[in-house]
Design goal:
This protein is of the alpha/beta class and 641 residues long. Helix 9 (302-312) packs across helix 11. The protein is globular, with a radius of gyration of 23 Å.
Amino acid sequence: MGLTIAQKIIKAHLVEGDMTPGSEIALRIDQTLTQDATGTMAYLEFESIGIKRVRTELSVAYIDHNTLQSGFENADDHRYIQSVAKKYGIRFSRPGNGICHQVHLERFGKPGKTLIGSDSHTPTGGGIGMLAMGAGGMDVAVAMGGGAYYITMPKMIKVNLTGKLRPWVSAKDVSLEILRILSVKGGVGYIIEWGGEGVSTLTVPQRATITNMGTELGATTSIFPSDEVTKAFLESQGRVDDYIPLASDPDAVYDRIIDINLSELKPLLACPHSPDNIKTAEELSDIKVDQVCIGSCTNSSLADMLKVAAILKGKTIDPSVSLSVSPGSKQVLTMLADCGALSDIIASGARVLECACGPCIGMGFSPNSAGVSLRTFNRNFEGRSGTRDGQVYLVSPEVAAASALTGYITDPRTLGECPEIEMPEKFKINDSAVLMPADENEADSVEVLRGPNIKPFPESAPLEDTLSAPLTLKVGDNITTDHIMPAGAKILPYRSNIPYLSKFCFGVCDETFPERALAAGKSIIVGGSNYGQGSSREHAALVPLYLGVKAVVAKSFARIHAANLINAGILPFTFKNADDYDRLTQGDSLEIEGLFDALKSGKAILKNLTKNETYELVCDFSERQQKMLIAGGLLKYTKGE
């Protein structure tokens, strides 16, 4: 039986386990990346392991999230990360150099390599044929130290592409179409491989847009073949030596095959407040637009920006619309300036923001009250924009630019002939903003610089056999990490300060939760389906840990968040009978006895002491995960405490 692309890479990097779907496997990791919103904690965790030098082929620390420096906090974090990178053998991408996934695709990604990053959109690297996965900061820290990365062996979905995208239809519409088909939880437990004759019509930046948004499906990762298109992209970046061909075997077996005809797609939008709430642009043409944001790790490539510039050239945006444009990297911004396209964007009335994540994480440029904001981003979770009642739609650059001109959601096909853009054969290469680490012989003399906002991560405790605690919070389906630990310009500067950050935990759902959880000492949270979807931020586990949360019981979990809970020493249980969720009430007094035996058997009984009821729980953990939970989390387990 032949192998898929992902299976080939997994086989070449397999350290432990076998490739049976559902079983735990361990992978050797070639590359890691971090960004500053998650990086500080990841490097504090790496330091605590006590290893003098990273042991990966390449590790890069990017500064792209917390670039708004309205106080000392972000600047201190950047200084800390830069000093740690210099000391421990990590390359440092300075603020302004660009968004981690865009820069990594341009300058460092290699087909056939494994990459994990402390950002959930690390699967962007799948556009170049990498096995690239989002992970919690602790997992990245362990990988930097030479440790394996553990995942459940995924099943395989193949998306078979035929035809070719028509004018005004883009890779973003492919992403939204697969979300329409599968939903935000339809990819859980799968790797999605994109194949078929239509693949050859897609550029690497288009492929990267599609793999980037595979994260919103809950998939472990997404991947494209490495072919002549990949080779041409690497050659244009001066990296043709990094190319290897990579394709699935003709007799590879998939658990599901989905067919998409690119020629039949229309411009699509994801409506508030979920990436899978899909409608066509023509259905929504009567909706007034207040704001448009173009950029993010999904749609900030040179090709995306040139298309936007061509649409806006010689025109002026509607007076009622505020438009921002964020190029994805210094390379993109420089080339836009050199060819005159940047002038076309500015002349239209757009505001050009720096090469960073910016509005995508609520770091500035939030919409007005109840404002309709069209964004070429990957998430439109409630409140993520920084405006609690903001109405965020996810769109392609073409829909974004067209709507900015008209002031209403606009199907760009109504604008007439689609402008053509010409891509350069060679990209402008200038890696001066990527700082190299100190030589290994000089590393001991490098001082790690810590500001007063950098606090130690919370200490977990070894597992006790009985857990008695109140149900301090009950939440519904599709609770995201933005619900658990919000982003935004007011909160992100405190990502290094867990005690302060804890004040905002679950603020979108219940502002009184932090106070009640601290008062309880120990507590249990109950959630619905797909609990913890979204970002890889381990703060969504570390902050509840600080607040005394010992267990989360849910109908189902998102992959990365479940792993982060275990890493933090928090027990993630699922209901055997999903209807039992309805029988629990916030404030109930709960108890689970015999936890050590429960971990071994995979079964536990949750007692509701308030209602005198019991519910069956499932806790299907690997032997390694059992040991981690007993020890009190990944760091204690790794250090043998």
